[in-house]
Design goal:
1353 residues
Length: 1353
């Protein structure tokens, strides 16, 4: 008889549990640990992360109740055995007519009552252990989450250089925590109950019938061998698949983050090919994993049925001996032993799918602990070290300092540097890109430690100082500043959190509370004195400090013009405001605490000259009372510095005042200054390159202007979100615009399309699953006949022996059929599922990449929420596919077969049994419903908390420099705490249904035995008919119950499939290539071939393009009443070099976005070579982009080699050769740098190219644009991170390219557009003037003032 009759808590699904789908990329498996070490390693999980006495108590209760829950069922086996004997007696009496069958009634009724009592005990025990273990796992996960995040926040930024920072943290907090919870929840209780069941069963069996029990012991080694060998293969392929999925997710994450660049270059097909390549590896490993699970499933049933065959054959001989007077064995005793031992072994087999979960939990725990226990060389949360007195002067000295980054230990960035930064003076550092300037800044604020030498502050070695105390005296404004995803008001206030000033200490409780967030919700009124005063005097004081700092940083005017003023949300990493705005808010955040040392790392690179001049004056004013250290490429910003340090290749080559250095005519500084001089054209190397705000900062034109207030709060990419909708970020799992409530019929229809290629496998799988389903009912028929034929009163000894052999042989044949049918069903379904998952992942990636920028940035969509479709949703679908689908299908077939068969043999018993089946199903359904609601309710809190942690890691330099570690951890814990009490209540209620679903079957059995015995005593049916109905129908009902234990997977999978199909439905096609083509080849990107063949607009011509704007007006969709451009008209001739200049927020980036057709104009038309692109279809607009190349201000590079990143710029359908890539890099003056790297062009750039300096990233982005040989080159502040010499070399390269190219450039550095054929001055959404540099200098005051401010001589 089958294990499905057992009353343990949810029978786990078959071994294909895709926990590892979400696990991180796992390194190759380490050498095998001994089993005892593994076991102790697993037990250690429960005692980690500082458990309380409550946790110990829960562990004790959970363990005892789980062990006790394994005992009732073997005891019930004894009662069932006695009932078999009683029913056999009643059956014989009824057939012989001369005996009274009702004399057995009292005994039968007593035993039925015993079953009821055991059922009640089982219910209580199951409920207690399931609740205890689910609480243990929730509490453990909450403790580990906090511990993990606080451990990450202790680490210096260098710790994250070697990791795929944000993506890995998200994987740990989503995937690894899910794996940990799955392996420490009620599954542990199930495991303990199964072990207890197994031991009790053998004890009972040996007491009842030692000889038969001894024979059946042979099943144990067979089961163990199957579990261990199969499990090892399963684990091996699971790890391989998880690694490939993590690599693919990392590509998807970066592509979604940089969707503007992906679209501008048509790079989606190449990224898709790389993504599909990893997913193909995962698919192949998944198929092999499915095959190993299939062998295990087949063997599980083979051993169980073969054991049944052996036992009944031996049992028939024992009954025959008893008939001959050689013993007292009855069929009931044999039934008891067979029943509980076969089930005990099946229970043992059912442990095998749990072991990967436990193994997965341990692996996840080890990964988490590796990060948690990693010692931090620079711990910003520690209280150790010398605390500096407030009177500290702030003189900094570098003494023979050398340094290299951990990712490239052989390359020294600083070489034996000796430097003094005098207290109270302004020291400037200048030098070529990559010379080590930013490294010096990072070392002063101790974001890095030197390899050798020492750095002192007022005589103290920085390593002796308390890190938080040191950083409290320093305010750092970085080259690419990050803001946190909260309001501008809160962002500026963060500067006060670690202020050392005595008068700021009393403000800290307010800074750590909700009050500023509540105030920010008031929008424009957040600085209204009447409203502020209602929050109390301390909040008033903070607001005054914020306003003063914003004014100092030249930020107050633009903030007040935003729609929600200081209450405007900055977005993730500050992406909702432009580059220039971000720098000013970061500067305000730095100035608010009135620091002793102000450290400016290219802090004004994204600003126009007028803003820069105002900030320069503020810095000069501030410099009178403090130490200022600034890093600059624009030498006009450091003219007033007391001392200038010139660096080259990690060494200090010159130092002195501005005049002293200019006096050395052949000196490095004087040469750099001459390169930047505006005065005469022959000195300037202005070529055709220009620069400007970044595409990332397209909101500079948008989010900053009066016309277009910053987008409301939505989680958006580190790209701009001008079009972000008013809608708040969607809750929980919902993603705007994606239908998660599709009817089931629509989901099935859509899936049918994907299953068509695997139709042959599907037919085999269904045929095999039908056989598997039929064998359950078949075993019932054999079982009924066997019990009946071994009844002593029904025949002679010879007959008993004959039937023992006959039905034993039949059962063995059934075992063989089960093996082959299970293997075929499971492996075919696994193959179909993996192919389906591969198609879904690749198509959802393709579809997301096809959507316009406007779509990505509206309705609260964010890269992280869209990434969950590819990672989390596909994992949910994976959890409910393959073996699970096979099992469900078999169960459905069995249920139909069982009903038909039961009614044929004994309809009176069958119809009553059928009426109680809904009770079994009802409890299962309720369990499903409660679990689904439980899941939904808590997804949101964890998502919010995880996004706080991921953001902290992505902006770790900012978090560390401002000492926000405790603040971030506080927000994280608050989000988790709100959740905890609710989860306890929900667990208590939900688990009642789970326990009921797993114990109500006993009550149903009790009723069935009572009703069946009544029918037998009335002579209507024999015990043979009763057992056929009992096994066929009630085992079916148990199996249905098992289906409901898959409830959470089913509800998750349905929502996930709806979302995935919603995304795929947005795409242009759903054809998936089998990814055997090499990465990036045109075979692997159907779009590329389609586009290149359709590319008629531009491919034939070699010269530049002509662009005409006719009365173009534009407003972002979220603010239709606020035009950003107003009737703009101009024509750019082929081959012209055009500059766009003007203040931040004037509309320059909007013009550039419209030229690329990232948005469509509200009115007017835009023509390129006479073709109106504003009315074109999306497909043809993609082809039109083939001849355009973009260089954004913040270079979006991908995790891959230098060669891969530059090659992404090639036109779709064409792979750039090594020679083309090298030529592009020479033009971008990056070739020598790349060639000097150990692996040359194959050097990995790291996540978001974090292993390269800002200037190197920018030059690679330029090389990527040049490899395309574009007819239109768009430069968006493309040289802001470059020093004068690199820029001059680059200008030369660009001049060569520009001869056949139309160039449109945004710039704040006016000297780069001197050679422009025409310069458009953009102000307030209109082109207010146009002309050459000399014409504008002569007639336009604002232009001349801006130019004069940048002149050095």
């Amino acid at each position: 008889m089958s294990a499905e009759e057992k009353g343990l808590a949810e029978k786990p699904a078959a071994p294909e549990t895709p926990v590892a789908e979400t696990a991180a990329a796992t390194p190759p498996a380490p050498p095998k640990e001994p089993l005892t070490k593994k076991l102790f390693g697993y037990v250690r999980i429960f005692f980690s992360a500082d458990p309380t006495w409550t946790d110990y108590l829960l562990l004790l209760i959970g363990t005892i109740s789980a062990l006790a829950a394994g005992v009732p069922f073997p005891l019930m086996g004894i009662v069932f055995g006695q009932l078999v004997d009683d029913m056999n007696g009643a059956s014989c009496a009824a057939e012989q007519h001369d005996a009274n069958p009702f004399r057995y009634e009292h005994d039968i009724n007593d035993k039925v009552l015993i079953i009821v009592y055991i059922a009640i005990a089982a219910f209580c025990l199951i409920y207690i252990y399931v609740l205890s273990w689910s609480l243990i796992s929730q509490r453990l996960a909450a403790r580990l989450r906090t511990k993990y995040v606080s451990a990450l926040l202790r680490q210096p930024p260098a710790f994250f250089d070697t990791r795929a920072a944000g993506g890995e943290v998200s994987t740990r907090l989503h995937g690894d925590m899910a794996a940990l919870q799955a392996g420490t929840s009620e599954k542990v209780g199930v495991l303990l109950a199964s072990i207890s069941f197994f031991i009790t069963a053998y004890v009972v069996a040996f007491i009842k019938q030692a000889k038969l029990a001894g024979i059946l012991v042979s099943m144990i080694p067979a089961y163990l061998a199957m579990g261990l060998v199969g499990g090892a293969f399963f684990q091996k392929y699971m790890i391989k698949a998880a690694g490939a999925i993590a690599s693919a997710s990392s590509i998807a994450s970066e592509a979604l983050k940089n969707v503007i660049v992906v679209q501008a270059f048509g790079a989606a097909p190449r990224l898709e090919a790389k993504f599909a390549d990893h997913m193909a590896t995962a698919r192949d490993a998944g198929i092999k994993r499915g095959m190993s699970a299939a062998v295990q499933a087949g063997l599980l049933y083979f051993i169980a049925y073969a054991g049944n065959a052996l036992a009944f054959w031996e049992g028939s001989r024992m009954v025959a001996d008893a008939m001959a007077g050689k013993g007292s064995e009855t069929i009931g005793q044999i039934y008891t032993v067979i029943f509980i031992l076969v089930d005990a072994c099946v229970v043992l087999g059912n442990i095998s799918p749990l072991l990967p979960l436990l193994g997965g939990a341990q692996a996840a725990f080890d990964r988490l602990m590796k990060d948690i226990e990693e010692p931090s060389p620079i711990d910003g949360t520690s209280d150790e070290g010398v605390v500096l007195p407030f009177e500290t002067r702030g003189e900094i000295r570098f003494e023979n300092v050398s340094f290299s980054y951990p990712s490239r230990p052989d390359q020294l960035v600083l070489k034996n540097v000796d430097l003094t930064f005098p207290a109270g003076k302004h020291t400037a550092i200048v030098g070529l890109s990559g010379s080590g300037k930013s490294t010096v800044a990072a070392m002063i604020s101790r974001l890095q430690d030197p390899n050798s030498g020492r750095i002192t502050m007022d005589g103290y070695d920085l390593k002796e100082l308390n890190v938080r105390s040191l950083r409290s005296f320093i305010s750092l404004v970085q080259q690419e500043p990050s803001l946190l995803d909260r309001s501008i008001l809160e962002n500026i206030a963060l500067g006060l959190i670690n202020s050392p000033k005595p008068e700021h200490q009393r403000l800290k409780d307010i800074l750590h509370s909700h009050e500023l967030a509540d105030l920010a919700k008031k929008g424009k009124d957040s600085i209204n004195p009447a409203i502020v005063s209602s929050f109390g005097p301390l909040v008033e004081e903070i607001i005054n400090l914020i306003q003063h700092a914003a004014t100092e940083a030249d930020a107050a005017s633009f903030i007040e013009r935003l729609e929600k003023g200081y209450g405007t949300y900055a977005g993730p990493s500050g992406s909702m405001v432009s580059g220039g705005q971000r720098q000013r808010v970061a500067l305000a955040r730095a100035l608010i605490r009135d620091p002793k040392i102000l450290l400016l790392d290219e802090a004004t690179s994204a600003l126009d000259s007028a803003s820069e001049r105002r900030i320069q004056e503020a810095v000069d004013r501030a410099a009178k009372s403090r130490t200022v250290i600034s890093i600059a490429h624009r030498l006009s910003t450091i003219r007033n510095a007391d001392k200038i340090v010139v660096m080259e290749a990690g060494k200090v080559i010159e130092e002195g005042s501005y005049d002293e250095l200019m006096a050395k005519e052949d000196g490095a500084f004087a040469k750099m200054a001459n390169l930047q001089t505006l005065g005469t054209a022959h000195k300037a190397e202005a070529g055709s390159s220009v620069s400007g705000e970044s595409i990332e900062s397209s909101s500079s034109a948008t989010g900053t202007s009066v016309e277009k207030p910053s987008a409301p709060e939505v989680a958006v990419t580190p790209a701009p979100a001008p079009a972000a909708a008013e809608a708040a970020a969607p809750s929980g799992d919902e993603i705007a615009g994606l239908d998660t409530n599709r009817p089931l019929s629509s989901v099935v229809r859509s899936l049918g399309r994907f299953l068509r290629p695997s139709l042959g496998w599907l037919v085999i799988a269904i045929f095999a699953a039908v056989i598997v389903g039929g064998t359950f009912s078949g075993s019932g028929v054999l079982f009924g006949f066997t019990i009946s034929s071994l009844n002593p009163c029904s025949g002679s000894m010879e007959k008993v022996l004959y039937y023992g052999k006959f039905f034993g042989g039949f059962l063995f044949m059934l075992a063989c059929i089960e093996f082959f049918a299970n293997f075929a069903a499971w492996s075919c379904f696994a193959l179909i599922a993996e192919k389906l998952l591969y198609a879904m992942r690749v198509l959802s990636f393709r579809s997301l990449m096809e959507q316009g920028v406007q779509w990505h940035q509206s309705e609260g969509r964010s890269p992280s929420s869209l990434l969950t479709i590819i990672t989390k949703d596909s994992a949910s679908v994976g959890a409910f596919s393959g073996s699970t689908i096979g099992t469900v299908f078999s169960i459905c077939v069995n249920f139909i077969a069982a009903i038909i068969l039961s009614h044929i043999f004994a309809w009176k018993i069958a119809i009553v049994c059928l009426s109680i089946v809904p009770i079994l199903l009802g409890t299962g359904l309720m369990q499903l419903r409660m679990l689904a609601r439980y899941e939904e309710r808590h997804a949101e809190a964890f998502n919010k908390a995880t996004s706080v942690a991921v953001e902290a890691v992505q902006t770790i330099k900012t978090v560390a420099a401002l000492s926000l570690e405790h603040e971030v951890l506080g927000s994280y814990q608050r989000l988790l705490k709100n959740n905890r009490d609710e989860m306890v209540k929900a667990a208590a209620f939900t688990n009642i249904w789970l326990a009921l679903a797993n114990s109500v079957s006993f009550l149903v059995y009790a009723f069935a035995y009572w009703w069946g015995s009544q029918r037998i005593m009335h002579g209507e049916y024999s015990q043979r008919d009763f057992f056929i109905v009992l096994v066929a129908m009630l085992v079916s009902a148990q199996l249905w119950g098992q289906m409901f234990s898959l409830a959470p997977e089913f509800s998750r999978a349905r929502l996930a499939i709806s979302r995935i199909l919603g995304v795929i439905g947005l795409g242009s096609n759903d054809h998936v290539h089998d990814n055997s083509a090499p990465c990036g080849s045109s075979t692997a990107d159907p779009e590329a071939t389609g586009e290149s063949s359709a590319s008629r607009l531009s491919a034939q011509k070699k010269s530049g393009v002509q662009i005409t704007f006719s009365n173009v007006s534009f407003a972002y969709p979220s603010r239709p009443d606020h035009p950003v451009l107003d009737s703009v008209s101009f024509t750019i001739q082929p081959g012209q070099f055009v500059g766009l200049v003007g203040p931040s927020g004037a509309g320059k980036s909007t013009i550039m976005n419209l030229v690329q057709r990232l948005y469509s104009p509200t009115s007017g038309s835009i023509t390129v070579d006479g073709v109106d692109i504003s009315s074109q279809s999306t497909q043809s607009s993609n082809t039109f982009r083939d001849s355009i190349a973009l260089v954004p201000q913040e270079p979006a590079l991908f995790d891959g080699s230098v060669k891969f990143n530059v090659g992404l710029g090639a036109r779709p359908g064409h792979e750039a050769s090594d020679a083309e890539i090298e030529e592009a890099c020479r033009l971008a003056s990056i070739h020598d740098v790349v060639a000097s790297l150990p692996e040359g062009y194959e050097t990995e750039c790291g996540a978001s190219a974090s292993r390269l300096s800002g200037g190197q990233r920018q030059r690679l982005a330029i090389a990527r644009a040049l490899v395309r040989k574009p007819r239109l080159l768009l430069l968006d502040e493309s040289t802001s991170a470059l020093d004068a010499a690199s820029e001059a070399a680059l200008q030369e390269g660009l001049e060569k390219v520009a001869r056949d190219t139309t160039v449109l450039a945004i710039t704040h550095r006016l000297h780069t557009v001197q050679k422009a054929d025409v310069i458009f001055v953009v102000e307030g959404g209109k082109i207010v003037d146009r002309g050459t540099h000399s014409e504008l200098m002569a007639r336009r005051e604002s232009y001349r003032v801006n130019a004069m401010q940048q002149m050095l001589q």
